[in-house]
Amino acid sequence: MIIYRKASILDIEQIILLEEKMLKDNLGKSILTEVITSDNGYVSVALDGNTIVGYVSIMIAVDYAEILNICVDDNYQLLGIGTHLLNDFFNKYNEIIKSCSLEVRVNNDKAINFYHNKFNFNIVNTRKKYYQDNTDAYIMEKIL
After folding, report:
1. How many domains does the structure of the chain reveal?
2. pTM here?
3. Spatial separation of the C-alpha atoms in residues 104 and 111, rounded to whole Å
């Protein structure tokens, strides 16, 4: 059974391993520490036993939120974990935030469809050579 909870700094190493496995990149220990410990940060994890199988990290600025990363282990995808993680955030902050944005690789059709079809995010712009491998990113935004 999958359990969801707020992340702690003790989760950072597992989060980085999950990011490396799934995204081939990571936010880094210092950024994750900042987001987890910040009053404006939101980091939630999904656990199977003691193993983190999914997580989301979000920064909030007044009435705006930016999704930094959402990641679900490939062995746990299509089980609703990503949907649950984002729904928990939107349910908690729906009275506060007016818009939310994220960047996603232009060739990541699975993620683009997830954000658009499940959460009504729309592509609003493109960041050229955004990622370390020079891949472009779409900026997607959701108005609440």
Report:
1. 2
2. 0.93
3. 7
Say what the pLDDT of residue 13 is. 97
Check residue 48 and give its pLDDT: 98
Q: In whole angstroms, what is the distance from residue 115 CA to residue 112 CA?
A: 5
Contact predicate 67/102, CB 8 Å: yes
For all residues of the chain together, what is the average pLDDT?
95
Please identify every stretch of the chain with a pLDDT value under 70, giving residue numbers as ranges.
none
Q: End of a domain among 97, 112, 128?
A: 97
pLDDT attached to residue 25: 84
| Eight-state DSSP code of residue 131 | S
CATH number at residue 7: 3.40.630.30
Q: Rounded CA gap, 104 and 123, in Å? A: 10
pLDDT at 23: 87
Domain that holds residue 38: 1-97
CB 117 within 8 A of CB 70: no
